[in-house]
Specification:
CATH class of the largest domain in chain B: Alpha Beta
Distance between the termini of chain A: 73 Å
Structural class of chain B: alpha+beta
Distance between the termini of chain B: 54 Å
Largest interface: A-B, 79 and 81 residues
CATH architecture of the largest domain in chain B: 2-Layer Sandwich
Order of helices and strands of chain B: HEEEEEEEEEEHHEEEEEEEE
Number of domains of chain B: 2
CATH topology of the largest domain in chain A: D-amino Acid Aminotransferase, Chain A, domain 1
Largest sheet of chain A: 8 strands, antiparallel
Number of domains of chain A: 5
Strand order of the largest sheet of chain A: 13-12-9-10-11-14-21-19
Mean pLDDT of chain A: 91
Radius of gyration of chain B: 22 Å
Oligomer: heterodimer
CATH architecture of the largest domain in chain A: 2-Layer Sandwich
Helix content of chain B: 10-25%
Radius of gyration of chain A: 24 Å
Strand content of chain A: 15-25%
Shape of chain A: globular
Structural class of chain A: alpha+beta
Number of helices of chain A: 18
Strand content of chain B: over 45%
Mean pLDDT of chain B: 79
CATH topology of the largest domain in chain B: Glycoprotein, Type 4 Pilin
Helix content of chain A: 25-40%
Low-confidence stretches of chain B: 1-12, 116-122
CATH class of the largest domain in chain A: Alpha Beta
Chain lengths: 521, 194
């Protein structure tokens, strides 16, 4: 089959740019990367056939510049532009600029992005077609307008506290603020609007009730130019911290096929009303009574699309490219949609981010000194990182996604535990300790999932402290040995592995045995 | 010198104090290896005997068993400082810890010295530095302002998240070293509180 395009520009960076480039290579499509000064040697630049510098490190002066990205596409002869997620992916004016330049935008139409990608417009549309929406406002909240404070406080009282200030252009928790009482509302509106403006170039915010306890469940959608839209199944993304997803899985555990069908149908109804083409995801909250509430639609590829790929056997990026070239939904997609309510197998993804889970997941930029990713049966790693790479402070801290696939959820959890134990990163603090904690936790194994899970179970400082004591002890022993050298009368504290034995597992057992044998009596 | 003297001498030389490069609240360990002629002797950690087995697996990896619990490790190269001190990165169970070690007797000398100047230290200037690289998006204080402990000073945006830097203690802003829009690296001076 001939490739859907000859050359495509990827308007993104990091793991998602590399993931898109991989599919393009398989389909025989040449790729163009764009990069900022901070990314001149980054993984997505190394992976692409052609690379174009579009500006300095700050995203607002490079990856968020519509004119520079479109110009790079035109000048390199690209026929299509894939936006990935984040940056310009959900900006209708970007999609429109790509189309106006005579190129194909890989995603929904500018019109559908505007209708669905604007969270407020999507809430209004959902309410119109009878999809239950989370209680909140349907119009932009006034920011920095003292004359409107009384009105918005009254509106907030009607919705009820605690509530959330959310960015209309938002995603991933950017621009979001939790508000517990009226007095904090004006400041939260201003702060949310400023962060939204910095992240998305649009400071519009609105109010929504916080549903707790809740599970975050979302539906993967694909649509073609004939107006047909199908659901490829749902994902559970409940393990979040401040609305930033940390762990995602497919299918959502513990949902009856009938409820699945109903949820998928709600998502498809909304997408069809919006004239959706290409890929999108409809996000819902499931409350403790099992009711689904519509949150928002993301009119783009999701970070966590890979778990759906593992369960369905599809390459969603490849399907996006064929759909963007004007093809109808493929037989493989239609077959997967048929099975969506009763899927086979289970997939889980953890997001490995350059963040410190011992300090409230604060960003932890730096240089990767050691990088060894898991492999083996049922394991997939999406990353743009190689040893020696710098994780710049200018962008999202996600550095890799570790995905596992197995026949059952239980087997997938076991596989994830094994894969996380194989994963080694040096030079930058990552969320790895948190991921290892979650996968070993009984409530995760029992699929007792909730958006409040992290707050309830994770005590970062305590976990970090016990690791610090081990690190200090090890650091002291190696320093003692290095100072003492091989001086006569001293015994090395640190043993060397004998030549010929390189089995890590065997040595772990040996370390345990040595330690037990030396227990003071 | 008798065998005994040699052992005691070497043990004193070999004791080490280890601390992290980060939070002041992090623990500090005093570690002393067991008797050099007894392979079964425990390591003394803050004077308490612990059973420790450590095996290097090549240049970067190691496994340690502490009181029967194994941990996989990554060991970074040691960066030597003065007076026998050294710094290295240790990754334990996914946690990255920068460990600074120095000989116990040197640490004791330093402690005594700092205790003599301890009173002055508390009243002296407090330098507030960037703990992450990023961009200054807001400055809430001016030189000469009085600030309370935990009061917000500047907002540092890194990885699209806003991080508020707060005052470590009460005082007067003596010097403001950054302005809105400036980029800072780890360790850059933000301001000084006196």
């Amino acid at each position: 089959m001939s490739p859907p395009f000859r050359r495509l520009l990827v308007a993104n960076r990091g793991e998602i740019a590399v993931r898109i480039i991989r599919t393009c290579r398989e389909l025989g499509i040449e790729t163009v990367a764009v990069y900022s000064d901070a990314d001149a040697a980054a993984g997505h630049v190394r992976a692409a056939d052609i690379a174009v510098c579009i500006g300095p490190a700050p995203a607002a002066e490079s990856y968020l510049r519509i004119d520079a990205v479109v110009q790079a596409a035109v000048e390199t002869g690209a026929e299509a532009v894939h936006p990935g997620y984040g940056f310009l992916a959900e900006r209708a004016e970007f999609a429109a600029a790509v189309v106006a330049a005579g190129l194909v935008f890989v995603g929904p139409s500018p019109d559908a992005i505007h209708r669905l990608g604007d969270k407020l417009a999507a809430r209004r549309l959902a309410a119109e077609v009878g999809v239950p929406v989370v209680p909140g406002t349907l119009d932009p909240a006034p920011v920095d307008r003292p004359d409107a404070v009384a009105a918005i406080v009254a509106e907030a009282d009607r919705i009820g506290y605690p509530l959330l200030v959310k960015a209309a252009a938002g995603g991933g928790g950017r621009g979001m603020r939790r508000v517990e009482r009226a007095a904090d509302l004006p400041a939260a509106l201003a702060a949310g609007a400023q962060e939204a403006s910095a992240s998305f170039g649009d400071g519009t915010v609105y109010l929504e009730r916080e549903v707790l306890p809740a599970r975050h469940i979302e539906v993967q959608l694909l649509g073609d130019a004939s107006g047909r839209v199908v659901a490829l199944g749902e994902r559970d993304c409940s393990i979040q911290r401040r609305h930033q997803k940390l762990i995602e899985e497919a299918p959502a555990p513990g949902i009856e096929p009938a409820d699945r069908r109903m949820l998928h149908a709600l998502a498809v109804r909304l997408a069809m009303a919006a004239g959706l083409r290409n890929a999108a995801t409809a996000e819902f909250l499931r409350d403790s009574d099992g009711r689904f509430w519509f949150l928002e639609v993301n009119t783009r590829l999701q970070v966590e699309h890979g778990v759906t790929e593992l369960v369905t056997g599809l390459d969603i990026v490849a399907e996006q490219l064929h759909l963007a070239a004007g093809e109808t939904l493929s037989p493989a997609v239609l077959a997967a949609a048929e099975r969506a309510a009763e899927p086979d197998g289970h997939a889980i993804e953890v997001r490995l981010s350059a963040e410190d889970p011992g300090r409230g997941f604060a960003p932890a930029a730096g240089t990767i000194s050691h990088w060894s990713m898991a492999a083996g049966p049922g394991v997939r790693v999406d990353t743009a990182i190689a040893p020696g790479d710098r994780v710049p402070p200018d962008y999202d801290p996600l550095i890799a996604k570790l995905l596992v696939h197995a026949g059952t959820r239980e087997a997938a959890v076991d596989r994830l535990r094994r894969a996380l134990d194989e994963t080694e990163v040096g030079g930058v603090q990552t969320t790895l300790p948190f991921d290892r904690f979650v996968v070993r936790h009984p409530s995760f194994r029992e699929a007792d999932l909730s958006t409040g899970w992290v707050e309830r179970w994770w005590d970062g400082p305590a976990e970090r402290r016990s690791a610090i004591e081990v690190a200090l002890l090890v650091g002291a022993l190696t320093a003692i040995d290095e100072r003492a050298g091989t001086a006569e009368g001293t015994r090395p504290v640190v043993g060397e592995a004998p030549a010929g034995d390189s089995s890590d597992g065997a040595w772990r057992a040996a370390g345990r045995a040595a330690s037990i044998a030396r227990w003071p009596r | 010198m008798s065998d005994d003297g040699l052992r005691q001498g070497s043990a004193a030389v070999r004791s080490s104090v280890a601390r992290t490069h980060r939070d002041p609240g992090d623990p500090i360990l005093v570690v002393e290896p067991g008797r050099s002629d007894d392979p079964q002797a425990p390591v003394l950690v803050d004077g308490v005997p612990r059973s420790v087995g450590l095996r290097r697996l090549g240049d970067r990896r190691a496994v340690v068993g502490i009181d029967g619990t194994p941990h996989s490790l990554l060991l970074g190269p040691a960066r030597r400082g003065d007076g026998g001190s050294s710094t290295r990165e240790v990754v334990v169970d996914g946690w990255l810890v920068t460990v600074e070690t120095e000989p116990a007797e040197r640490a004791a000398l330093r402690d005594r010295a700092s205790r003599r100047t301890g009173g002055a230290d508390a009243a002296g200037p407090l330098e507030v530095r960037a703990s992450i690289p990023g961009r200054i998006v807001a400055v809430a204080v001016a030189e000469g302002d009085e600030v309370a402990a935990e009061q917000g000073l500047v907002v540092l945006e890194a990885m699209k998240m806003q991080n508020e830097i707060r005052a470590g203690r009460h005082g007067i802003v003596e010097r403001l070293a950054v302005g809105v829009g400036e980029n800072v690296e780890v360790g850059d001076l933000l301001l000084v509180i006196r």
